């Protein structure tokens, strides 16, 4: 990193964000400023064993904060994970949540913080119609979010994706106040992330900015954020994958990830509409799915986004800026960072194509895709992505 001071700032858009290397040390003070005395740190079982979590817990405790860890969550967190977390929160008489980890931990933590104040079941708060009006807001716990991967951007999101393992679908739980009260983006925490996960999560961040940028929803502020989020991925994702110890690349990708999630207040699109059912049915990595689907969805959307993508290619300074140039860049980036070209390469065939297409059409992300695809069109994208046929 050029210097610690150059890449260090306090932002309040869309929430309070503390950016910079070493800023994890401010965690106890942030919790205290939000009125917390006895926090529940929610993370995944792997991270719970690692020094970064143990150090954060020790720092909280030596600052006089009570701090317990809840880590019984799956990589695609389920309703039971949330319910168990609520029980742990209540049993420990906690008064705030630290959401620490990748997207799964952050989503589970935010859902737990919502549910500690509710007496209805989780699915009553699914993001449908005005369900959010059912939330008893005063009962929600405050959240400090500390992402350790650069992908979902859940730290600046107002929703959690939770898997309904009875219906085999991913459901979005939404309330505007699920936005964490404060966020720490400290690149030192993502140094240990393996290259393969750095690549997959980074491509999720790219898919958020790219789908938000292509969405027809009127939100120019979010469109601007999406553009710059894509540029940061272009500049820094290959560096972060190649040289995981590069603090500047890690920081820039954390920022790109937060920008992607801020941008998708504009909505997402067909990559996510397909990745959600595929993730629920095959338990495949969300970022990897979006990364594989990306060029096939861009091509399917081409008629509606040709002009916009040409502007994007110009902003990214691609040679001979055009839709084709952007597509070539996506394909080259995927290859460079080791993303497979086909769904078949990760063990997904077209056997359930009709079922997945049915789920994609009604997925929450489908509504803001530039073209309203029908089931046949989703099935067609899926079979192309299975087989690797771009044209
Ligand atoms: Zn995503």
Protein described:
The chain is of the alpha/beta class and 391 residues long. It is built from 13 helices and nine strands. It has helices at 27-33, 45-48, 51-62, 79-91, 103-115, 195-214, 220-242, 247-263, 270-282, 286-315, 323-336, 353-362, 375-387, and strands spanning 9-11, 16-19, 38-42, 66-70, 96-101, 143-147, 159-164, 169-174, 182-185. A seven-stranded mixed β-sheet has the order 1-2-9-6-5-3-4, with helices on both faces. The protein has a two-stranded antiparallel ribbon with strand order 7-8. The chain starts with 8 loop residues before the first strand and ends with a helix. Bound molecules: zinc ion (ZN). Zinc ion binds next to helix 6 and helix 10. Residues 152, 204, 207-208, 272, 286, 290 line the site of zinc ion (ZN).
**Which class best fits the helix and strand makeup?**
alpha/beta
Beta-strand fraction estimate: 5-15%
Record field, number of beta strands:
9
Mean pLDDT score, rounded? 96
- What order do the helices and strands follow? EEHEHHEHEHEEEEHHHHHHHH
Rg over alpha carbons: 20 Å
Unreliable spans: none
Total DSSP helices: 13
Bound molecules: zinc ion
Helix content: 40-55%
- Looking at how many chains there are and whether they match, the oligomeric state comes to single chain
Q: Widest sheet: strand order?
A: 1-2-9-6-5-3-4
How are the SSEs placed, and which strands pair?
Layout: E1 9-11, E2 16-19, H1 27-33, E3 38-42, H2 45-48, H3 51-62, E4 66-70, H4 79-91, E5 96-101, H5 103-115, E6 143-147, E7 159-164, E8 169-174, E9 182-185, H6 195-214, H7 220-242, H8 247-263, H9 270-282, H10 286-315, H11 323-336, H12 353-362, H13 375-387
Parallel strand pairs: 2-9, 3-4, 3-5, 5-6, 6-9
Antiparallel strand pairs: 1-2, 7-8
Helix pairs in contact: 4-5, 6-7, 6-8, 6-10, 7-8, 9-10, 9-12, 10-11, 10-13, 12-13
The chain binds zinc ion.
